[in-house]
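Duplicate of #3305? Posting structure anyway:
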């Protein structure tokens, strides 16, 4: 039960942290592209603004990577965006492997506890015989509690693991769209939209 309790605490901490970190307003704020277009229109893009943009959010980091290569070809700009994007996605997936591992091992830990409990029940039968069925039933019930506890940890962990995976995919698509719009507008391949 102690490993399951530790898994439960770790899973809860990861879920709360990922809920906070993967909010759209933290990852991909809506105003960034309009701000870049305003800077470009007024010829105000400089190193200080690019640095501030880079520190503002994961999307800001991706767009800043493109702005650093603004005077290069479109392909160079896109390559720098893609490279930074891979790093950003890796950071967004932080702790998800741990959450997936907890979801996978919790039922096994519960089953292991049940097996140990059943071994103790059968050792008790071997020593004392089967004279008291109530004692055996109590021992079996205690053994099965670990399986139930393992499932109680695994089910929410797996649910949130899948939810966060989907959330990250959704945010990645949004960031890709924003980055492509920026590249195309700044290189004159697309007209600026009134709303990004």
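Output from current build:
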């Amino acid at each position: 039960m102690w490993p399951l309790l530790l898994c439960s605490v770790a899973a809860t901490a990861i879920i709360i942290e990922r809920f906070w970190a993967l909010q759209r307003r933290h990852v991909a704020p809506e105003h960034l592209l309009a701000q870049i277009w305003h800077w470009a229109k007024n010829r105000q893009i400089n190193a200080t603004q690019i640095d501030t943009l880079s520190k503002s959010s994961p999307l800001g980091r991706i767009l800043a990577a493109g702005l650093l290569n603004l005077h290069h070809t479109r392909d160079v700009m896109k390559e720098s965006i893609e490279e930074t994007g891979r790093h950003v996605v890796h950071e967004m997936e932080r702790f998800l492997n741990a959450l997936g591992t907890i979801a996978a091992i919790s039922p096994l830990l519960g089953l292991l506890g049940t097996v140990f409990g059943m071994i103790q029940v059968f050792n008790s039968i071997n020593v004392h015989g089967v004279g008291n069925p109530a004692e055996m039933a109590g021992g079996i019930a205690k053994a099965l509690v670990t399986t139930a506890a393992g499932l109680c940890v695994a089910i929410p962990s797996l649910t949130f693991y899948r939810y966060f995976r989907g959330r990250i995919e959704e945010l990645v698509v949004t960031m890709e769209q924003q980055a492509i719009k920026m590249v195309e507008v700044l290189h004159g391949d697309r007209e600026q939209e009134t709303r990004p």
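Confirmed duplicate; merging threads. The helical segments are 2-21, 24-27, 32-41, 47-56, 58-68, 74-92, 96-128, 133-186. The chain has two domains: 2-94+164-186, 106-156.
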